[in-house]
Amino acid sequence: MTGLDCPLRIAIIGAGPAGIYAADALMKSGAHVSIDIYERMPAPFGLIRYGVAPDHPRIKGIITALHRVLDKPQVRLLGNVDYGVDIDLVELRRFYDSVIFSTGADADRALAVPGIDFDGCYGAADFVSWYDGHPDVPRTWPLDAEKVAVLGVGNVALDVARVLAKTGAELLPTEIPPNVHAGLEQNRAVEVHVFGRRGPAQAKFTPLELRELDHSPTIEVIVAPEDIDYDEGSEAARRNSKQVDMICNTLEQWAIRDVGDRPHKLFLHFFENPAEILGEDGKVVGLRTERTRLDGTGNCEGTGEYTDWDVRAVYRAVGYLSRAVPELPFDDATGTVPNEAGRVLVDPRATGSRRYLPGVYVTGWIKRGPVGLIGHTKGDANETVACLLDDAAELASATDSDPDAVVEWLTAKGIPFTTWAGWYRLDAHERALGEPLGRERVKVVERADMLLASS
């Protein structure tokens, strides 16, 4: 470990909420630390910038709290640096006593349904990246289907369904970039069907997110009365969770009301398990679902009754998946780096230091999988940081711990890294783009333009 007069040098890989919460936990611990947060994008904030629907300013307000962390003098942002491409673990350990990986989850979990590879089948994560202006995805998106299916009953499914059902004009006041607005203006969807294989009490929405569906003047939210059903397990879930009960109450109210005349219809279907994507000439022409029923425990079983739905596009929103991290072990089944309380596990049969990858830790979704809300990663960060600090006395010290050394090394390699000061410049530029339009900001999409604005 470094001497008492020298700070513990820590690199955090990933400048999303999980990584920033880890930096915050390190500083609040009272330990003498110096932290560099690496981010492969030119801008920080990860999921908040590139994974939250643009019409959710409430959630994006979390950035205010994250800003306060990155403003601290103990923290330095090094953006546009891609771990595994621009820098590897051996090089990081040259400059840091410890490394925390908080690389998140930005891929779509697979869904084993026949026809899922037809033209017209999409992953929710890919669509979210498009409408959030991610620089590494295509600038256009096919939106020519009038009837669309969304598979899944979580908040991401609601985001995808809501964006598909809204008009381009409704989303224009948000930060969406011009290419996204132009695409949404051509969107032909007038019916969006959201499918869940179990019942209302098993839906993974949050109550506020669900109610927001009904706020659009152009979207009629429709729930079939026969989809409101509960078994003993469902009733227990309602009794034990105020959130579940609120969701059920909202859905019940929608199921008994008359259908209005808003032009776009958004159907929430329960007890429909996707069985097959129907296709012709390799293109989606429908969705076949099997009706399910509750089994008494809150789980469901098939009834053998099938329905074919007339849709021309299918979006799967069945969960995000983390990508393998170079030089770290990876569990493909769970989409996580094997770990114990944040320590990276390399040999479960070993004891002592041989059990773990020395000085390497994980936090956030790469640690426990993409479940829970953004704020839940605080607990992950606290646990991981506690382990790191417990291990601090045994950590091998960086061989080149001068904070200037890594900056000189990146510069010598010709990597055009961005900084926290650069983010302030990019932020001001995006706000200036929005000001004459009466918008808070207009997001810059092109990586080269982001780098130019940050310089």
Count of the separate structural domains: 2
User: Strands of the largest sheet, in order across it?
Assistant: 3-2-1-4-18-17-16
Unreliable spans are none
Mean pLDDT: 95
Whole-number radius of gyration?
A: 24 Å
Q: How many helical stretches?
A: 17
Helical fraction: 25-40%
CATH superfamily of the largest domain: FAD/NAD(P)-binding domain
Kindly provide the name of the CATH class of the largest domain. Answer: Alpha Beta
CATH fold description of the largest domain: FAD/NAD(P)-binding domain
Distance between the termini: 35 Å
Query: Tell me about the biggest sheet?
Result: 7 strands, mixed
SS-derived structural category? alpha/beta
Given the C-alpha coordinates, what overall shape results? globular
Strand content: 15-25%
- The assigned CATH architecture of the largest domain is 3-Layer(bba) Sandwich
Number of E-type strands: 18
Describe this structure in words.
- By secondary structure, the chain is an alpha/beta fold.
- It has two domains: 8-105 and 322-418, Rossmann fold (3-Layer(aba) Sandwich); 107-320, FAD/NAD(P)-binding domain (3-Layer(bba) Sandwich), CATH 3.50.50.
- The protein has 17 helices and 18 strands.
- Strands 3-2-1-4-18-17-16 form a seven-stranded mixed sheet, sandwiched between helices. Strands 6-14-7-8-10-9 form a six-stranded parallel sheet.
